[in-house]
Amino acid sequence: MNNYTPDDEAPALSIATVATTLNVSSHIIKTLLRKEILIYVPDNYLAHRKRIDKQEVIDGKSVARLLHRLSSLNESVPNGKIVRFDHYGIDHAKRLDLLNEIDGEYIRIAAFNFTVGLPSLALSKTLRTIGERSSSLSIRKSAEFLEVYPDAIYRLIKAKLLTARGLDERRACIEIDELTTFRENYIFTHEIARKLMCNPTNIADRIISIGIIPIHGPAIDGGLTYVFRRSDITAEVLLRINDCNTYKSRTGRGRKIVKPTNTQLGTDQETFTTLELSVKTGISIATIQHEAKYGCLSEAVINMTSSKKAFQFHSRAIGILALLSESHRWAIKKRKSK
After folding, report:
1. pLDDT tens digits for 225-248?
2. 49, pLDDT greater than 80
3. CA dihedral (152, 158, 159, 160) positive or negative
4. Which CB contacts under 8 angstroms, 24+ apart, belong to 126-134?
5. What CATH number belongs to 262-326?
6. Any idea where the domains of the chain sit in the sequence?
7. Of 33, 99, 283, 309, which sits with the fewest C-beta atoms within 10 Å of its C-beta?
8. Using CA atoms, how far apart are residues 180 and 54, in angstroms rounded to an integer?
9. What digits encode the pLDDT tens for the residues 148-185?
10. Could you tell me the strand order of the sheet in which 136-138 lies?
11. More confident residue, 187 or 41
């Protein structure tokens, strides 16, 4: 089918054949048929049945037309967001709706490879601005621009990492230049997970465990998702994150705490009790216990008794607490020295 043009005579094709051509499942082909991106062979009685049988019912010309449209690559649209089709989830049907708008003003094709099929497709979608303010996006569109939930945008505004401007009593907007600057300077965990091609669930725990502290997130200032400085996530750091296995997760059922032996720690590395760590850092015992159980310090815990209060810490806990105490956004302040 890749060799056909819309003007050629094309045979009727089965769902399985079209699925192979586009490199997707038969379920997605049926979705394309329901959305009329592909069509049935004219006057085919099977098209009127509730259950679609895998027969030669798809019009070959409609497949050729779709492939021809996808091969017309264009420059990215201004204020655009790249929408990719390389993974399938609950929102895939919504992404397929964009195929009907390819020839319009707001959707252009950024990438497509015939040999790979639909998973290689990338569309450039314009984020429509608010009214006459051609340089601003609504909160919902700002969330789409940064690929996060709208509530995460509100948390970023509260943390003063973004600035919202009021349009009226119930609407706000953010300048596109500010969103672009934010994206250049900071990175979310889902983008890091995409670079590593892994699940983003515990990626923040793995990053924190190697000593990189986020500037925003649940354990920092109550943010919805963790945000790191983009300059901290280098190629070397990505390799360390990928190889990191000794981290403590704060999601799901939880991981058992590893109790390393003296040979694992080395003779030159000290361990500290909660009291000893409090004396060395000047931070209260209650604060250290809280961070060990729920915050960024949990990765430095190497032993914990059945009472879950008598912690034993690795020496790197001193450095982590120093970084936290210097952060202006750390909710728990350092204890005053007497």
Report:
1. 899 999 999 988 888 888 776 555
2. no
3. positive
4. 126/77, 126/78, 126/79, 126/80, 127/79, 127/80, 127/81, 129/79, 129/176, 130/167, 130/171, 130/173, 131/167, 133/167, 133/173
5. 1.10.1660
6. 13-126, 136-181, 187-243, 262-326
7. 309
8. 47
9. 888 999 999 999 999 988 766 667 888 888 988 998 99
10. 136-138, 172-175, 165-166
11. 187
Instruction: Give dist(CA 48, CA 25) in Å, integer.
Output: 22
**Position of tokens 């991106």?**
37
Structure-token match 């350092």, residue found: 334
Distance set, CA 287 to CA 59, 117, 294, 312 (Å): 67, 54, 11, 15
At 64, give phi and psi (nearest 5°): -65, -40
pTM, full prediction: 0.51
254: left (phi over 0), alpha (psi -120 to 50) or beta: left
Q: What is the distance between the alpha carbons of residues 249 and 85, in angstroms, rounded to a whole number?
A: 30
- At 294, the amino acid letter reads Y
Which two tokens mark 11?
A: 């045979």
Structure tokens that stand for 45 in this block:
């009685």
β-pair type (136-138, 107-113): unpaired
